[in-house]
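Problem 12. The chain below contains 74 residues. Write out its predicted structure in token notation.
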Amino acid sequence: MNDQKKKHNSKININTVKVGDGDSQKEIEKAKLKSHGIIAKDKSGKIITTVEGHSYGEAKVKEVIKLILSKPKE
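Solution.
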């Protein structure tokens, strides 16, 4: 994830949050995830997509980033 964060940090904000920190549990519930995963949001905070789980691999992370970057700017 860190290499993708470095590559795309000027275009999107990527945060890695430990479950239990801050509002993470509330965010997981809003995203309808079972326990943890990826929650991708647009600038307004609307969920674009989610990925359930912890072991989704680099290809899935790149897919989510591509989806975020393809959304029209508001």
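Discussion. Helices lie at 2-8, 24-30, 57-70. Students who got a different answer should revisit the alignment rule from Section 12.3.
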